[in-house]
Each structure stands twice: as C-alpha cells, then as structure tokens.
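Sample intake — FAST kinase domains 1
Collected from: Canis lupus familiaris
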Amino acid sequence: MLRLRAIYPCSWRVFQFRTCSCKPLISQMIKCTDEEQVFDLIKKNKATFSEKQVECAFNILWQFQQQRTSFLKNVDCIRDYPHFLTLHNLATSQIEFMDDDTLVNVLYFIQQCAPEAHDLLVEALVIESWRRLERFDINVLSKFSSCLANQLLYYSPLMGKIADIVHRNLETIDDLRSLSVLMVSISSLTSQRFQQQLVNKTEHLFDTIDSSQVNVARRIVQFLRNIKYSYYPLLERCNKVFLSNMNHLDLDCISKILSLYHSLQFHSFEFVKMAKKRLTEMIPLFDHPDGFVKLFVALGPMAGPEEKKQIASILHKHLDDYKPFELLKITQTLTFLHFQSKELFVKLRELLLRYLKISVIPSEIAILVYALSILPSSNLCEVEISQIEAVLPQCDLNDLNGFATSVLRWIHYDRKYLDSTTGKQLKLLQKLDHYGLQRLRNSNSLNLLWKELKSLKGDWFTESLLEETVATLLRLMDEINSKNVAEIASFISRTNYLNTLLLDRIASVVVQQIEKIHPFEILGIILPFSALNYDPPQNDEFFRICIQHLNSYLSGLEPPMLVFLGFSLAALGYFPEDLLKAIFNIKFLSKMDSQLELLCSSLNRRVQFRLMELNRAVCLECPEYQIPWFHDRFCQQQYNKDIGSMNGAQKQIYKMLAEVLGGTNCVKASVLTPYYHRIDFECVLDKKKKPLPYGSHNITLGKLPEMHWESNTQITGSRLPPGAERIALQFLDSRAFCRNIPHLKGKSAMKKRHLEILGYHIIQIPHFEWNSMALSTKEARMDYLRERIFGEGKS
C-alpha cells in the first residue's frame, strides 16, 4: 500500500475534496493492496456507491495494472472478476450525476481496464461527453481528446469539433501540458495555417513548463512529426529537456524519442550517446516481448559487438508476440546488423506470410511485403501478388514505392529463373507505374503531395516517376515557401536531376524569407546547388545570405553537419573564414572523433572523407588561411583498401593512349597527385607537343600508385623541362553528370579546378562521347584522342 501511495501521491489529493460520505470508502480503497480487496469493497457497498467512488475504484484498478509487466494478461484478469460487471453497471447508472472531470476520468479508466471493441459504457460516456463538449475546461477537453485518440477516432466529426474549439480559444489557452495533448490528438485535422499558430503558441508557452516535463516535450515533438514539420527551434528546446532528464527516461520514452527524431531527420549526438548508455544498462532487465522489441530496434543500430550478441540471443523466443510493424523493424535491424541465422529468418518469413494472408490495410500490406523482400531467399506466390494488386488503387506514393522496391528486389534475385511468377511481377511493376503517375498528375497541393514524396527513393522512383515528379513540382512551385524549401532542395539533390527553374525558385524564396529559415536548414538548401554545380541568377546574394545566416549559429551545429556544410560550400568555390575556423581546430576535431563512434560505418566513412576533401580544397584554393594538410595517413590507408581494376572503357583508352603516345612508357595509369586526387591517365608533352617517356617510373596496375611529386609543395615549375606540360586524362562515366543533361556535377568540377591548380592541363572524356556512334570504330577513337591531346586529327 505504501508503495502504491508513493508512486501515485496525487491519487489521494484528487479525492480529498469530495464529500464526507465518500471519504471513508475512498480511504479504504486507497489502502487496498490488490484487485481482490477493491472488488470486495465494491461487493459490500454497491447499494451506496457514488459516482466519485466509481471513479476512485477505476483509478485504483488502473494503478495496479501500471505496476505490472504483463499488461494484457492482467486486463483480461480484471474483466474476469465477478464484480467487475457490478462496477461497470454502477458506472453506467451514475453517468448523469458525474461532473465533467469525473465523466472523462471514468471514460479514460474504463478504456484502460476493459479495452473491448464496442463497450456500451464507453459509448454512453462518449455520447454524454459530446453533449457537454463546449463547457469542458482545457484540461478535461485534452483528456477527452486522448480518449478519442485511443479509439483511433482521429478523423471523426467529434475530433473535428474539438479542433474547432481549440482554434477558437487558442489565444486564451495558457496550459501547455493540456495543449500538447490536444495538439497530438487533432494534428490530422489541422490546416497549415492552424499548425503554424499552434507552433507559435507552443513557443510562447514553452518557458512556462518545468524543465522536468518530459511528456510535454515528447508530445510537442510528436506533433511536429505528425504534421511533418522539422521546426528546429522547438526541437532544440525539447532536446534540452530530454538531455536534462535522461536518467529518468524509461525504455518506452527513449524508443519513441529516437523514432521521432529519425522521422524528423533531427540529429542530436549528445542524446544518442546518452541513450546508448541507458539502453545498454537496460538489456538484462527486458526479457518481456513488449519491451524487448523496442530495446532491440532502438539499441541495435548503435550497439557494439557484445550488446548485439546479448540482444540477438533473446529475440527468437518472442517472435510470435510481435505485430507487422514490429516484425518489419526487427527484420530491418537484423539486416543492418548482418545477423546470420537461417532458423530465425525462416520463422520471420512464416509470421510475415501469416499476417499477409489476413491483412486488408494497404499500408500494412506494404510493410509486410517490404519486410519479406529483405529476408534472404524470399519470394511471393501468385495469390500474394494478386492481393497486392487489389489494394493498389488505395495506395499513396509511399506504399507504391514500397511495393515497387520489393518487387524489383525479387526480380533481381530471380533473374536467372524467368518463370511465370517473374512475369507476374513485371506486370505488377507496370501497374505500379500507372498508379504512381496517376497520383502525381492528380496532385494539386504541394503540402499534401510532399507528405508522400519526401521519403521516396530507389530505382523504381528514379526510373518511373522522376520526370513526372519534377513536372509536378514545377506546376506547384509557387507553393514552395520557408517551411518546405529546405526539404525540397535536399530532395532535389538526391535525384541528381537539374532543373534550373526549380533551383531559381528555391534561391528566390531563401533570399526573400531567410529570417524564417533555421540555420540547421541551410545545409539542405545548399546541397542541390553544390551537388549539381549550379549558380542561380542572384548567386552572390544567395550564398552571401546563407553564409551570414550560418555564422551566428556555428557553435550550435553538430560536427558532421559543419563538415558537410564546409564541403558543400567549397565545391561551389566558397570558403567562409568563420566556418573554416570553427572546423579546423583541435577542440572541434576531438569532439567529432567522439561522435563518429556513434555513427553507422557508412556515415562514419562519409564524414571522414568529406573532412579530408574539405581539408584538400582549403589547402589548394585558400593557402592564405594556412590550414595544414593532415590527411596523408588517412588517404594512404584508404587507397590501400580501395585500389581496383580498370573498367572496360578505361582499358580501351589505356591501350589506345599507348599507341597514340608511342608506348606504355609514355602514359601512366591510375596516378595519385599531391593531396591524393586520382587521375585515370597522365602523360607529359614537351614544348613541341612530343610525349616524354617516364622510363622505369611507370606503375603496375592494381598496386598503390606512387606520388611522383612531393606532397604538400608548390607545383610551379616542378620537375618538368622548360615548356613541358603535364596532361591529365579523365574518363567521366554517368556519375559525373546530372541525370537529365550532360552538365558536370559539383565534385567533378571541383576536381578539375584542383588539377588545374596543381599544374595539369585537363582532358575530360565523357562517356556519352566515347560510346557514341561517331566513335564506334577504333580508328575514330584514335583520331579523337589525337585531337584532344595534340589538337590534330588523322595522322
């Protein structure tokens, strides 16, 4: 009893105001130590039970459930008590005597203790609450909205009425706890303008809450996720609340926060670091399936080898208890961890197929199909393909993309078995194309479309929908504004599709509305201009404004983001001194090293490569900053790992170059320059344009190239006869160009600048020229090389 009162000290205070006739029985119920005692009191006092005592009884029973782990089992146990029906009937008979607070409290408790699909008491309580709705105070209204959300009535007329009440009374609401509950409940029914009003009100009230109000902060982040709005000022403030209360966060809370951050693409290394420590400590405590799946999914991607072994060993015995979305998360995590267990994957497949046979919800079917597709040696039969086809008209772009990604994966696996099933899959792909294009063409709101479009990626989207997607964005580009500009820009950078009208619109919005854009979003905005090597008409003003906006916030940005920002700007030829000083110092680099440990291996490598490339760019293009080159060892390690063979086109070019230049001793292949740029081929011409032989210094293909210049030295006049010229020949495959036009991308353009600074004359051989009909014969290709090198045609 003492434990119960310690955990729920508010329970006694809730009932202290009640009438003297209620107090003795309420006091007795609060002293109860289990359900038996509560129901015994109900049995003995049912003739005189008041509405307050009904509320107290439900409250006490619910508190007992919250102390136990096997929640569903205990709920069933409560309903099985003979006198639960007595309490149920007492509540029904007392509805008209309940005040507003009691009415909604009883609704909440009965939902928790008796979650049946069509409980008559729940229906009666909801109807009575609807009748009283306009007079509810903000606290009661928020709790009632939560009850409706528990019944999945997010789109009901009743929830719409609550949204209207909140909208009409927003100016007078001063309780952020209640408002945050309402915001989550009504988020599906809010307009873009109303959403912004709620965000503004939340910012205004945020300082009124205590720093320990984790649930309020979590609901604010959940609201932002629901409306798909990564509003960084609020996210940062909520993150500070989570960090200051980390020692009190349980598994459920940490798991939800990590999931919300992932959806919003908000990164807090400090939170991840502290969460990993807390979750690791929890491993021995969670052997129950409800908690373990959250622990496994949350900790798996950032766990070390020992933690992975521990969590994987518990997983198998709980698989039967998990629902489709949980099974997807488990499958994704196992794949990410490269987990090997044939028995476990067979069991997963059986469970996923079992759910698929009975599912009728498009999004759930898409989840199940996607999970099946990432399992080893998995496929679908004709019946399951027909099941997918039946729900396609109801699918949004995310579901369609999920199906297409899965089908393409199966076709790839089954390419050597072109049987009837694969034929069915190809027909399914055609239908997916049809519904995807139809959905894009029917879109008339960028805000609604973007909710479906923002996470699309993969081969199907690129090959089937990209052209139509760009056309749709162009049609709706007047709706690009400060709220969506960063995400749309980042999306464009991922497509490698250069449309100057869209990028000009993005630049214009940024210049006009920069004060409404958070510095966190500048990276996403700059990315397409950097990646696609494009300067908008007002490029100087655009980049100057972006850089100025960043400068006031450099200390608030995480190291990986600063590195990506520095590299993106460097690719465009911009080197802001404040940004570079923030990056190239011991304190920053030490902080970055500690954060790299928390990143997955691919992102870890990407950050390190971008730092090296930024270091190289600064040394070559801004020597006046006197930033040292400190990546020799890193580059040597990477190139030792990454030496590979030449592709077919490069082998052809190498052989022909040897003929054109007078022998293999006149051409070097796979050359490393100072600062570790790799050149496909190098030759040297004297002042009369005659090739100079390298003698014994040529390399054997497949071995680490030796840099024949001293690293980190000035190049002018280095080791060349007077008038001689170093030639770099680069074969440019499709990755060097934008997807839709032969326009050189940012990294390739930056490399060309650097090689020119190093003293090279650059000859670029685009794949579309080398593989063209005009160069379909050896003789034509030889002439092409002579023309490019010597400026002459046929010899």
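Post-analysis note: Confidence is low (pLDDT under 50) at residues 1-21, 696-718.
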